[in-house]
Amino acid sequence: MLIKPVGKRRILFVPLDWGLGHATRLVPWIEEAVRGGDEVWIGGNGRSGAWLKDRFPNLPFEEAPAWTLRHTGNLALDLIKDSRAYRRSLRADRLWATEIVNRLQLTHLVSDHRLGLRAYGAKATTVHHVLVIHQLTLALPWLWRWPVLMQGVSLTLWALLRPYWSSFQELWIPDTGLAGTALAPHLSMLPWVKDGPRWSMERDQRGRWPRFRYLGWRSRFEGISPKITENMGDAWPQESAILVVLSGPEPARSRLEALVIAQWDSWGKAQGEQASLGGQAALGGQASVGDRPSALWLVRGLPGPSLNTEGMLPETLPEMVPEMPPIKGLKVWESPDDPTMIMLLSQAEWIVSRAGYSSCMDYACLRSWWPDRTRPWRICTVYARGHSEQAYLGHRLKRMGQADFRRESTFDLREAWLNRGKFTFTYAYSSSPLESY
Fold first, then answer.
1. How far is the C-alpha of 430 from the C-alpha of 427, rounded, in Å?
2. How many CB atoms lie within 10 A of CB 106?
3. Cα–Cα distance between 389 and 184 in angstroms, integer?
4. Percent of the chain's residues with pLDDT above 90
5. Whole-model pTM?
6. Mean of pLDDT over the chain
7. Are the C-beta atoms of residues 198 and 342 closer than 8 Å to each other?
8. What is the distance in angstroms between the CA of the first residue and the CA of the last residue of the chain?
C-alpha cells in the first residue's frame, strides 16, 4: 500500500460474480495479507463467493449483494438493455460497503471489478479503497479485431468511467504495464502510455485520479511448488485426454458445456460406426492425429464435489440434453482443488476454455514450470457471443500463434482437435510485481 496504517491492517476482498476468474486472481493477494499478519475477510456472492469460501475455509466470509443484471446471452447488449438493473447493483454495493466498513472497522477494502464497492460517510474517509481491474480501455463489440481502433473509440466512454474510478485510491492492474510483454496491452494500458509502471509512479498524485499500480500477472498457482506433481505419483492414468475448462456467467457456461458433451458423444458414435465397418481400429493408448482421444476431462467451474462417477452426466445437463445417456470416456470435476487442477492442466494433451484473462494467466504460470516439457502446450479458446474481452484476447493469441480461437456458434470439437498442432502456447509468465504491494 502507499501508506500502511499503524498496527494491523483489516482487509476485505470482494470479487465480482461474473465467472470464477475475478475470485481466483485474488488468491495471491489474500495469501500475502494472511502471511503478513493482517486481519483478512473475504466476501462475495454466487459462484465466485462460494469458491473463495471453499478456498479459504478459515477466513470469515461476508455475503455481498447479488447483482440483478439479467444475462441472456450477449453481455454487451444486456448491459445496454438492463442499465437500470446495473445501476441498482452499483447502489446496493455502495450501501453494503458502507455498512460492512463500519461493522468490521476495516482499514482496506479491495474490490475486483465491482465498481460500486465504495463506502461513504465519516468512517469511509479512513478506509483505503482499491479496485482490481485489467480494463482501462473497454473491449468494445465488433471492434476487437482492430485493437488500436477499439482503444480510440473506447476513450469516448471515459466520461462514464471516470466517476467510478475516481472514488478509489488505487487501481491494481494484474499486468506488466510494458507494451512488449503485457498480456492484454490494448486493455490494460492507455494508448499514450508505453511504460505503465513509470507513468503511474511519476504522475501527479494530488489530482482526482487514483494511483495506477501494475503488479504483474497474478495466478492462483504461483505460490505452489511445481514438485507437487511428484507427490501425485501413479494416481493419474496415462491416457490421452482433452481438458475442457468451463467458466464465465450463465447461460454461456452451460451452453458451452452442453455443446462440448454432445459433440464428444457424437464423435464417439461416429468412430464406433467406422470401427464396426473395419475402417478404423479401436481406441487405445496415445491417440494419433485422426483418432478421438480416450478421455474428455470436464471441469465445470461450479462449487461442489470434486469428481463425478466416470461416464455420468452432470445432474443439470439432462434438462438441456434430455435423451443423452452416460458417455464413455467422460470424467467430470465440479471445482477441483489447486493440486488436482494443476495435474489436469499439466497432463491434458489439449485444453479448451474461454479466453478469460485469469485463465490465460494461469496457463502461463503452469507453462513456465515445465519449459522443457516434451509435449507442447496446446490450447483452444472459444468465444462467447457478446464477451468482447474474450474475443480480443483470443484473437490476439491466435495472431501470435499461441492458441487457436473459435466462435462458439461454429465450434466443432473434432475439427479443432485435428488442427491443434498449428498452435503452441509459449507465453513467459511474469509474476514479479513491478511495484511493491
1. 9
2. 24
3. 9
4. 29
5. 0.84
6. 79
7. no
8. 6
Grid cell locating 38: 493482517
The answer to whether the beta carbons of residues 67 and 30 sit under 8 Å apart is: no
Tell me: the pLDDT tens digits for 350-380? 999 999 899 999 998 888 876 666 667 899 9
Alpha-carbon span 226 to 247, nearest angstrom: 24
The Cα angle at residue 311 between residues 308 and 316, in degrees rounded to 5: 60
Reference 87, options 102, 68, 70, 71; nearest CA is: 68
From the list 368, 376, 422, 418, the residue with the least C-alpha distance to 397 is 422
To which residue does cell 511474469 refer? 430
Domain segments of the chain as ranges? 10-214, 228-271+282-422
Contact yes or no for 132/111 (Cβ under 8 A): yes
C-alpha cell at 406: 473459435
Residue 122 has pLDDT above 70, yes or no: no
Hey, what's the cell of 234?
501413479
Beta strands in 67-136 (DSSP E): 108-112, 128-132
CA 185 to each of CA 191, 194, 345, 385: distance values in angstroms, whole numbers, following the listed order: 9, 9, 26, 22
Give residue 272's pLDDT. Answer: 66
Cα–Cα distances (Å) from 285 to 241, 288, 315, in that order, read 11, 9, 30
Copy the grid coordinates of residue 23: 475470485
CATH code reported for the domain at 228-271+282-422: 3.40.50.2000
CATH topology of domain 10-214: Rossmann fold (3.40.50)
**DSSP 3-state of 93:** helix
Q: Which of 177, 176, 382, 419 is nearest to 289 (CA)?
A: 419
d(C-alpha 31, C-alpha 92), whole Å: 28
Identical fold for domains 10-214 and 228-271+282-422, yes or no, is: yes
